[in-house]
Amino acid sequence: MFLESVKAKDFRNLNGGTKETGLGLELSRGVNILTGMNAQGKTNFIEAVYFCATARSHRTANHGELIRFGEDAALISINVSRGVDGRYKDRIEMSLKRTGKNAVVKSARVNGVPIDKLGDLLGILYCVIFSPENLSLVKSGPGERRRFMDMELCQVSKVYYYELKQYYHILRQRNALLKGMQKGAGAGDTLELWDAQLAESGGRIVSLRRAYIESISRVAAGIHQRICGEEFSAVYRPSVTAGEFLDKLKKNRETDIRNGSTGCGVHKDDVQFIINGLDSRVYGSQGQQRTTALSLKLAEVIMIREEKGETPLLLLDDVMSELDAARQEHLLSAISGAQTIITC
Ligand code: ATP
Ligand code: MG
Hints:
Layout: E1 2-9, E2 23-26, E3 31-34, H1 42-54, E4 73-82, E5 88-98, E6 104-110, E7 113-114, E8 127-130, H2 132-135, H3 142-156, H4 158-182, H5 190-228, E9 232-237, H6 245-251, H7 253-259, E10 270-275, E11 278-279, H8 280-283, H9 286-308, E12 313-317, H10 325-334, E13 340-343
Parallel strand pairs: 3-13, 8-12, 12-13
Antiparallel strand pairs: 1-2, 1-4, 4-5, 5-6, 6-7, 9-10, 10-11
Helix pairs in contact: 3-4, 4-5, 4-7, 5-6, 5-9
Bound molecules: adenosine-5'-triphosphate and magnesium ion (MG).
Residues 12-13, 36, 38-44, 65, 67-69, 318 line the site of adenosine-5'-triphosphate.
């Protein structure tokens, strides 16, 4: 699949100089290099492409940030081709509208037809994004590692995408109820209902995450071995297993009410990376942690290629300068044949 062109208007600072028409860019099917001064909008461009393809940002969950300051709406559209010689063409148009202080409505059209569910975008353009934030994946908080799992899983599995959406919806309802109870409101049977739904949805997410981490661990281990000869594995560390989720919610009920939030569940999961038998977060050198991030990213490319039969678009934001010559070499040889956008 190839990204043929991009238009963006009022997506962060992107406008290309003409406020009326916005930014328009045609891309090569090989390597595209975006160079520029700091703060000119290179990362914003990468983010716009990723957002249009997946309805998610790699930088923020607050989509109000994506609309240009002082404006109420942003538009991005991309033209994509796939199949032999790129014979099938698709166009995605994504719009963001501010509806309140932190509220944003997203809507999308595919080939001119409005789509009901943003999940229907997935699969038109697969992207793998690699940015400096990823390089610190091992050391950063568990939230970053969950985001890593979610970003990849959502793209390859619509079932996961909808399940995760559902889970967070239930979690918000449960937390709102807990906050009410904290102030003395009664809950009746409602809490029981949310508990059951949360445990059910969470259980499905746990098994999807477990399977994904097992596969990516296998693929990344081979890459890691080739890069530096070390043994690597990724291990999924769920906050609760599917079987014990409901019991734990019941057991923690008093604490949850006191805190006004849910203390266990897949929103607390983590992933552990092990190099030569040692936890890389605790014992890994900076180089080992970078190699981990690189192996995982390259594994993602391979997995999408194998599972979906399409080579994903690679978005490399500022990472080349962060890697040493040997790792750059690995990255460049692994991406040969993939359409790439590199910023520097
Ligand atoms: P660097 O080389 O430093 O990574 P960059 O070209 O990648 O720079 P970006 O991160 O793409 O830079 O753009 C940053 C700029 O975008 C900042 O100056 C920031 O103020 C601006 N910006 C971010 N969000 C918005 C927004 N919602 N509206 C207008 N401008 C924004
Ligand atoms: Mg940048």
